[in-house]
Amino acid sequence: MEEIFEQTDPQVAEKLEWWQELKLGLFIHWGIYSVWGAVESWPIVDKEPYGRESLKQWDESGHDTDRFMQMYFDQSKCFNPESFDPELWALAARNAGMKYVVFTTKHHDGFCMYDSQYTDFRANADLTRQVFDAFRKQGLGIGVYYSKPDWHHGDYWCAENPRLAREVNYDPVKHPKRWACYVDFVYNQISELLTGYGKVDILWLDGDWVRAPQEDLQMDKIARMARKAQPGILIVDRNVGGEYENYRTPEQTVPDSPPNGPWESCITMAHQWSYTPNDTYKSTRELIHLLIGIVAKGGNLLLNVGPDPQGNFDPLANQRLAEIGEWMDVNATAIHQTQAVAPFEGGKLCVTRKKNLTYLFYLAGEDEKTLPENLKVGFIAKAGKVRLLGSHAGLRHQCGNEGLEITLPQECRLSPPCQHAWVFELTEAKIID
After folding, report:
1. What is the span of the domain harbouring residue 284?
2. Which end of the chain has the smaller Cβ count within 10 Å, N or C?
3. Beta bridge partner(s), residue 138
4. pTM strictly above 0.85
């Protein structure tokens, strides 16, 4: 894995430090694909794993690729989210302890969720503006997701060539004028988003195959424009590396060990990124353990929810957010503004640090509703005061050759302050290397 490019812009470095303290954000995949309840964009790429085979119930094209694509794009005529209320989204995110949002302003299918003057393939209302205004009102940072490829645009997928793979379907070297038109299109759309939608903190670019030298979008020009419009903005040209990937974004996974440089795991709350009827949601316990494991290694969790065609979160998504919020009400101080400290995790234990405080997480098992009477921590050699977050109970502890041992009184064990994971705050802790 490439090293993260060292930042020389002090405003970017300051923004990156701010972002690393947020720890938990909300990712939202929403678009015309929600009408079918389909995987986002990928069904129109016939040779991809999530291609047309995943939509047999909708496919009446008779193996006619052009007809199927038109059927897919025609979902735009049915996309009319009458129940959409971004204030509810933003409030749910804030109450869950989330500190920023990344919203899909345009996915690979090219459908714009904002009022772009460079295409007619867009929503009837400026949904992006409403989302950003609502989340900004709740004090959350703002991230623009934008797909670099555009499978609807004739200068990316020209109609005279087969449109079967994710890449541009002509040779940009042999058709420089056509490619230049597409480069201008991307530049202009990103400029719209960064100059007309208030303060933006993150430009989150997807579609890592669109890169120099094969599909050169002139990222240096985009970056100059972006940072003129939004000084210090973080640019995430994900999986490309180099100067314009300010932090890494491992997808649907948590690294085994802390990566070099800033990072964020983007992970779905359910199975799919976008709305799918009857999707399977991760349990609250699993989501909280994910968050703890990521934060213990110094990363952020960008947790994805896919609204339905009307703009509603699934009731299970709202329930998960509310339950995460209940846990964060007790334990957020051990999550936000913390740093990773070795050994990061071990067995049921994880650890973070904030200034002179150390936070020890005990990850409860699926059927574990009460705290253990004695908790032994072999990697902590010394601790001053020890308290259980959310509890006023007095705890006894001692340190010896086998590390730290915490003894919990019965009333504390049987009536824990939260579910799923418990956090101990330690002063003057010494961690064994």
Report:
1. 10-334
2. C
3. none
4. yes
